[in-house]
Amino acid sequence: MTKVNKLSTTKLWNPKSFIIFSVFFSFLPAGIMCALNYGRSGSQKKKWIFLLASILVFIALIALLPILSINTSIIFFSINIALGIILMFTQLKLYNKHIQNGGQSASYLLPVIIGLLIFSLSAASILYSIYVPKNALDYGENHLFYTNKITESQAKKLGDYLNSEGYFTPSSKVDVKIDKQDTLYILSLVVEGDYKSDTSYVQPMKAISRELSKNVFENNKVRIDLCNDRFQVLNSINVD
Fold it and tell me: Source organism's superkingdom (predicted)?
């Protein structure tokens, strides 16, 4: 009698919702729900296996996607759907039996909160990786970041030029980034101050742009972006 009462009061999440959570948030909250369902059903071993596997796969996916040169959004979406379907099918039988035995469906308030939190953290991580490339050359405490559209030799040529011209010094701590769009090179400089209303820096930056075009980038145009410390653009300076 005690066992029947325990089963009837146990609440599990419907596995069909795993796909919805995977699409809108990612497969991680679905994996957590799946793991907790096992735990509530008395299978502690499966709970920890699914919980740890979901977390590790999610971390690996977030780490790998930014370094791929293909369309990562499609891959991320496809993997989430596929894993959501797999998680659903692993628990359909368990859930149906649970309902037949008088069990109840669990509230989705906690999964939604977890999903929003995970979505926020993963979005922040992806945005950070978009603005701050993993490729970098170090000149003392100065760092030159470059995207996959720039070769290491091009980045080194730029870094050596900045170093020889005194932009990088032994006592400075400067971060710059170089990117490319078609034939246009984009040099991002981390700056402080009001660079939106102050126009006194525009002509000096245009002069630097022309110098880099001539001495580093084989007369291709160079746009200079003034950015915050995460390389989000505050102002762009184009040379006519």
Answer: Bacteria
